[in-house]
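Final paragraph of the annual report: two paired records, presented back to back.
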Amino acid sequence: MTDIRVLVVDDHQIVRDGLTALLGALDGVDVVGAAADGREAIHLVGETAPDVVVMDIQMPLLDGIEATRFLVGRDPALRVLMLTMNEDDDTILSAIRAGACGYLLKGAGAAEVHNAIRTAAGGGMVFGASMTAQVAALLATGTSREAADEPFPDLTERERSVLRMVASGRSNDDIAGELYVSNKTVRNTVSAIYAKLGVSGRADAIVMAREAGYGRGAGAPRTSSGGGATMEA
């Protein structure tokens, strides 16, 4: 039987090294890489082709939920298992909606993590033993704020992710670099967003996105050498 290829993603080196050692010692698991943030995870997934990504949530540059949203949008067959200290309702639902197939707390034992990886690789959903009732209640009642209707329902998860970055003032080059895709891919995605939103250009899309709560407090657009803000089509 082929070993399950696993990529570890965590911004704390001691945790990352510990997980790599722990998972590497498990039968049937092959740790193919380790990343320190969501951007590096996107890059390494392309290089190492893991079956399961064990993903932290709170990380610099690109957090685990946004990285999961992009990765699963690009490859729906990829299995992402969240392993985090965060157990609040909004974060759990955000992770599930981003495409995570499981959610464990970092207090989980080796046997529980091992079983979760096998379940994820086999196509199942898995949640920590202490979280099963909590997740079931969230999915059944939809009481969390995250359960409210997502803005722009006509957009795909990838398009919403790109729109968030556009609303934050990011250029196409910046977005392409962060997501490890070509500038042409970003241009095509942005054009599709404009068409679905019914807007004629970037400025209108930014206004609409910020009115919906995207991009607030995430920084200003890049400035040109003359000091003015740059704006792309």
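The closing record of the year follows.
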Amino acid sequence: MTTASPHSPDTGPARAAQPDDAGAPETSATAAAAAKLALLVASGATFLAVLDTTVVNIAFADLRADFRDASLSQLTWIVTAYTVVFAALLAVAGRVADTIGRKKLFVWSAAVFLVASLLSGLATGVPMLIAARALQGVGAAGLIPSALGLVLQHTPAARRQVAIGVWGAVGSMAAAVGPSLGGLLVDAWGWRSVFLINLPIGLVILAGAVRLTGDRPTGRKLPDPAGTLALALGVGGVVFGVTQGTEWGWAGGRVLGLLGGGAVLLAAALLLSRRHAAPAIELDLWRSRAFAATNATSLLFGAAMYSYLLSSLLFLNAVWGYSELKAGLAVTPGAFASALGAIVVGRRVGPAGQWAAVAVGSALFGASCAGMYLLLGTERSYAAVWLPLGVLAGVGIGAALTAISNAATASLPPQRFASGTGLLMTTRQIGGALGIAALAAILERHDVLDDEGYLRVFLACAIGAGAAAAAAFAIRSRPVQNT
């Protein structure tokens, strides 16, 4: 059960009459329509935000052809700028969403994301593209926690688990389908299309969001600016340092400075949050054993999942000789399988069983990675080996991600959904950065065309997923009654 700390801004009469942050009373038909619209809007925005973490990877060859004077290191910043800013601001954005209103933050974030997508698509040089991608990360960070907050605000308590299942299915599918969709877009229209495709979809999402009712004023204060800055810079420094560790050298001054400085800033943010009336990090959320356990599981699972998604494409391209487009299409069945796993958990697994769904999903994913380590090699075996293992991995990813979100939500009071979601996604992104760094460190010790390095990455993913499955047993706890 989550309890408020002495410094928690959620105590006092300002919250008493508004346990659900709902808007004005609505008829059942109007409420049902609003719930469907909120789910559609939130799912669409989440799809775009998650998609843009992976869709650019497949466009590297096209980017290098257009920007011949740019080094590979400069081009990797096009990906890194987005992921680092995205991770750095997620926790802060969740708190802001619960303070100023989920709809307000969602609309502003969607507008920023669209402007940044347009600037990315029109970029005339790598510096402009990197800056636009960083701005896109700002918008994405605001979209994710406010999107889920909108869903939970407009959805009756009895239907929230199903709604989270759909939302989770879209998010997990976006992460997996990014390479195949990116391959199709780049092959047909070039790298600019992976950014410009956001515009028509985003405008429809923005129009839908404007129609939703907003939150009631919560009476909460905006988070401590000093703690917020320390948190954002600390997370950003750690993620960036881990991301660049292999390329710059782990013992190099730049990496040690980023990791050390990030750790110091995170410690400062934690210290300030213990003393401030409106803390940047709501430490009392972690007093819920279930919520703390979901964060630990999210960190471990994120490390394994992001490493797996990238290594799969690299293996198909480098070892089996698939083109970027063919490699993207080869992993697509796993993307649809992840959506299926998410929907099944959302519809069929009750609140008390979410920890088991996390454990089973993580175990299925880990078993698939172990199977790839044992069965794959230089000889192509797509139908017999890759396809069934990829589908199994997809089911496990979708089930685990959705169950982690469900378990985290069940452990929180409704007025703190966005804050909790922001923290949960932050741990997943940090885990993802650690996983990619581990992947790079392993592959650096092997020939890029040799299968041995990739197989060792799959083994590492299996171990990470197994650790997530083990951590899931700590999630079991009496959920908060979200009514």
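Residues 55 and 182 are 5 Å apart (CA to CA). This concludes the annual technical report; the extension proposal builds directly on these records.
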